Amino acid sequence: MKKEKLKFIIDNINIKGYKNFGFDDINGSCYLINTDNYNKWLQINLEINNLKNYTYLILRFKINFIIVTKILNKALEIEYRPEYPYWWDNADTLTMEQELFLEINAENIRPVLKNTMTSQDVNSFYKQIQFIYDQYLQPFIDKYPDLQTVNNEIIEKKSSDEWCNFIPGETIFKSLIVMKICRNKRYTEFLDEYKSNIVNAMSNGNSRYLTYYNQLLQLATYLESEDCKQFL
Is 46 helix (H, G, I), strand (E, B) or coil? Predict the structure, then answer.
């Protein structure tokens, strides 16, 4: 499909409450962001696959609990730029588990545009995106309304090896922040055990963990600081 036509269609995707940042030709994607809730921002990422005879989308969905991002950025001295909600380093707190990702991107569900499309086809394309949002993404949003639920349903019920399937990018750092905010009784025990594991790894010659370990100590120190209390 010609890029001009594709751009027009993508730029007009509309989901209530979300701002469409438009077709990104360089990355072949489009972001839709909902910032209505000051405490929790929602992001839909559409990966655009423009093939010879048709175009299809791959959908990803993430939730950014702002307080987690702010604490992580402050602790690790990362620049915080709220004007660019999807450019923050490791901004996303929660993502869809693999099972849900595969379900909404199955060939019989994912939004598709044929190159020989009509206006009716385009409308069906928009309706399919809305259908996926209503039937799959909204229930995911409802399932995790706050950090206490993330703590209860993921950190408490899943093994730490599984957390990365739900909490993307700097998983342990974000999990520690959630545990601290939610006053998880296992916080100190888990932190001490995790630090010990890294120290043991470094003792066995894995010096590549040194920078990460120093960041972990930096985060742990910040979580106990007076400055951090403004977030807790």
Answer: strand
Sign of CA dihedral 177, 179, 185, 186: negative
Q: What is the pTM of this model?
A: 0.90
- pLDDT tens for each residue of 172-193: 999 999 999 999 999 999 999 9
pLDDT in tens, 46-105: 999 988 888 999 999 999 999 998 899 889 887 666 555 555 556 789 999 999 999 999
Beta strand 29-34 with 112-114 is unpaired
CB-based contact 68:88 (threshold 8 Å): no
The Cα 135–Cα 139 span in angstroms is: 7
Nearest to 5 by CA among 42, 35, 61, 50: 50
CA distance 128 to 133: 9
| Alpha carbon separation from 97 to 43, 124, 144, 161, 229 (Å, rounded) | 15, 27, 12, 14, 31
Range list of β-strands (E), the chain: 19-24, 29-34, 40-50, 54-65, 94-95, 112-114
d(CA 206, CA 104): 40
What are the b/e assignments for 200-222, b being 16+ CB within 10 Å? eeeeeeeeeeeeebeebeebbeb
Nearest one of 12, 43, 32 to 140, comparing CA atoms: 43
Cα–Cα dist 232/92, whole Å: 19
